[in-house]
TrEMBL record:
Keywords of the record: Chromosome partition, Hydrolase, Membrane, Transmembrane, Transmembrane helix
Reactions it catalyzes: All bonds known to be hydrolyzed by this endopeptidase have arginine in P1 and an acidic residue in P4. P6 is often occupied by an acidic residue or by a hydroxy-amino-acid residue, the phosphorylation of which enhances cleavage
InterPro entries membership: Peptidase_C50 (IPR005314), SEPARIN_core_dom (IPR030397)
Transmembrane portions of the chain: 12-33
The protein, known as: separase
Length: 700
């Protein structure tokens, strides 16, 4: 409250003293000493600092004086933003890794030829820790953090309500209709971060949105006749998202009730059941479209990955930067300009807004109504300055986009780090992302921890060096219909698994020992049964694993996370991540068996087809590994270690290993479309984890 009061009068104390008070109030002892309420306070302070830095870049009223000549407001804002997300889980990842590292230290000492193991360990520590030992080290700590980021683009998403909304309402000249704010941060190791603070419009869904009186009546009847045994339990309780997007919770409840209602024997009853389900599918599709339009607007292109193998992008981008600086005398943000170019023609649906945004510092505050020419600025003075330049700038940008139109390759994956307030939403299925490769992780630190653990195992056991993990989908163990009541699922998959020479169990429950052995000795675990399979292997048993397979969990709500106030979110995907699984495909909500079977069969087919096209010895991968072993593969860190953090860098510097081939998550889009209900069922599966490639083991 002191910080808020100080901000209201337009004055902030000395920068160092200001941060000292905040950070020293949460001393950097081990996270083991943080009780849950204090940890939540730590996250809240980080979130507030991120907001303050965004505001400080957009108006002199909120400016922060800083002695840093290297770090911009967007660097500080993105650092504190990510620190506010999942930090309580970072301790679990760190402690889970520590005892394994201690056990492997002897191996590292004896096998000193293992390349870079200590280096990886050091870089991971920079990403998992939230604060330095001393306030004097803060700037260097943030610089080290940013340079240690993965090459893959990370998008942090936070929904702000309550006190934040009231604060921003007082500080910014906005209408009173703003119910919440969304903060987006985009960063990786090669570009300057971009942080935006956007007003969130309510996503409402009236009965008129699905204009069918019979469907409306049938859903109302379902809600009225539901008994205690059929009540839907909301796993996330109540969040800000329920206030600004109430339609989603209603869709989830109707999905639960309709999926558990019987077909009936008559043709009319079956027709009514399918009518209900189809209308729900349409409602979810429309909800996601509205969410993208009203929450993101033209900023939706921030969520896309970098272009890969787009030969002229770097050349065109550099030339455009020079032209805009020389001809428009504009101090542009190169990272944002790259996103505009990457959006190609589609980015110009909000071209007036985009033109203004290219001429700011990397932190942006939006206002209500994206179609308004002045909607993207908080300062009329800045807006007028941009107007004089925008026409010429747009001509230059249009010309650059035309040059790139026929030269687009494919998109690199993105990793979403979602606030607890929005993690239940299927972000991967908004229109801009639905056909792209997207993963989700609980924190930025957990990305580093997962890659670190897998790298160490691969290097020690197989001597492999790759940017991302690799699995062979034929090295799989399946658990099919262990409860014995999904006969059609078993009929569809059992013979097919045998034809592929997969090992596994069908029609009966395994022991915990069987599953433990399967998870640590195979590359892939396939579960086709009820729930997440936690009834067959406990979280405690999972966390004891030294290695864990990639996981394909097709049961109801297998990917759902439960929230309980200020305590750490709970869910099977988090347990598998902590156990070392590189990727987990699981369902955010309840699904019906036949349609999710279509999704599962399409995904597994696609993985095996990709495997069959992978050569046993990939020349490109072998050359990269040889360079790394000979010490020539360290160009990334050398290039990035210069004193000033770069605005942009060549994306090709990050393409190592098997990154030129499709990864597991790249097939999600086509599998969703295989479902009869491509949104109600197809949008339920998401990928937790990190981008994971497909390889072909010589022994299989």
């Amino acid at each position: 409250y002191l910080i808020i009061d100080v901000m209201k009068i337009g004055f902030l104390p000395n920068f160092s003293g200001f941060l000292s008070l905040l950070i020293l109030s949460f001393s950097p002892f081990s996270f083991a000493y943080y009780p849950a309420p204090r940890m939540m306070n730590l996250l809240a302070v980080s979130k507030l600092l991120a907001v303050i830095y965004v505001l400080s870049s957009t108006s002199k009223l909120f400016s922060l004086s800083s002695s840093s000549k290297v770090l911009s407001e967007s660097h500080w804002a993105s650092f504190f933003h990510q620190a506010s997300l999942g930090t309580h889980l970072n301790y679990k990842f760190l402690s889970n890794m520590s005892w394994r590292f201690k056990a492997q230290d002897i191996v590292d000492t004896e096998a000193s030829h293992v390349t870079g193991s200590s280096c990886i360990k050091t870089e991971t520590g920079k990403l998992i820790r939230i604060s330095p030992e001393s306030i004097k080290d803060l700037e260097q700590f943030v610089k080290d953090f940013l340079l240690s980021l993965p090459c893959t683009t990370v998008i942090c998403v936070t929904l702000l309500g309550g006190a934040y909304t009231r604060l921003l309402q007082e500080l910014l000249p906005l209408p009173s209709c703003v119910h919440a704010w969304m903060m987006l941060s985009r960063f990786n190791s090669i570009n300057q971060p971009i942080v935006v603070l956007l007003p969130v419009n309510a996503v409402l869904q009236e009965d008129a949105d699905y204009d069918d009186d019979d469907a409306i009546t049938s859903f109302r009847e379902l809600r009225e006749i539901k008994d205690c045994g059929k009540n839907w339990h909301c796993p996330w309780g109540s969040t800000i998202a329920d206030d600004v997007a109430p339609a989603f919770k209603l869709i989830m409840e109707d999905n639960y009730l309709s999926s558990r209602s019987s077909y009936g024997d008559s043709l009319g009853q079956r027709s009514l059941w399918w009518n209900r389900r189809t209308k729900l599918d349409q409602r979810l599709c429309e909800f996601l479209r509205k969410l993208e339009d009203s929450w993101l607007g033209p900023w939706k292109y921030m969520l896309l990955g970098e272009w890969s193998n787009c030969k002229n992008l770097d050349t065109v981008h550099k030339k455009l930067v020079r032209d805009l600086k020389c001809k428009c005398k504009a101090n542009i943000n190169e990272s944002l300009l790259r996103i505009v170019l990457g959006g190609l023609k589609g980015a110009f649906k909000g071209e007036e807004c985009i033109a203004q945004l290219c001429f700011k510092k990397g932190c942006y505050v939006g206002t209500v109504g994206y179609s308004d020419n002045s909607s993207c600025g908080t300062s009329s003075e800045a807006s007028n300055g941009v107007e004089r330049l925008s026409e010429l700038a747009l001509q230059l940008i249009h010309k650059a986009v035309d040059e790139l139109e026929d030269d687009s390759g494919h998109r690199e994956p993105t990793i979403l780090v979602l606030d607890c307030e929005v993690q239940m939403l299927p972000w991967e299925n908004i229109p801009i992302l639905r056909n792209h490769e997207v993963y989700r992780m609980p924190s930025v630190g957990s990305i580093a921890a997962t890659l670190e653990r897998i790298h160490r195992h691969e290097q020690l056991v197989k001597g492999l060096l790759a940017t991302f993990p690799l699995i062979d989908p034929l090295d799989a163990f399946y658990l099919l219909n262990p409860s014995g009541d999904l006969s059609e699922t078993q009929l569809l998959f059992e013979d097919w698994f045998r034809d592929q020479n997969l090992v596994g169990k069908a029609g009966s429950a395994p022991t915990a020992e069987e599953l433990t052995l399967a998870l640590k000795s195979h590359d892939l675990f396939i579960y086709l049964g009820h729930g997440s399979g936690s009834q067959y292997i406990s979280r405690h048993d999972l966390l004891k694993l030294e290695k864990c397979a990639a996981t394909f969990l097709m049961g109801c709500s297998s990917g759902s996370l439960s929230l309980n106030g200020c305590y750490i979110p709970q869910g099977t995907p988090l347990s598998y991540l902590l156990a070392g699984s590189p990727v987990i495909v699981a369902n955010l909500w309840d699904v019906t068996d036949k349609d999710i079977d279509r999704f599962g069969k399409t995904m597994l087919d696609a993985w095996l087809r990709e495997r069959s096209s992978v050569p046993v010895g990939c020349d490109q991968c072998s050359s990269v590994q040889d360079e790394a072993k000979n010490g020539r593969g360290k160009v990334n860190k050398k290039r990035m270690s210069r004193k000033k953090l770069p605005e942009t860098s060549d994306i090709s510097l990050c393409n190592n290993g098997c990154d030129h081939r499709p990864k597991l998550g790249s097939f999600m889009g086509q599998a969703r479309e295989a479902c009869k209900l491509p949104f109600l069922i197809g949008a339920a599966p998401v990928c937790y984890g990190v981008p994971t490639g497909i390889r072909r083991k010589p022994s299989l």
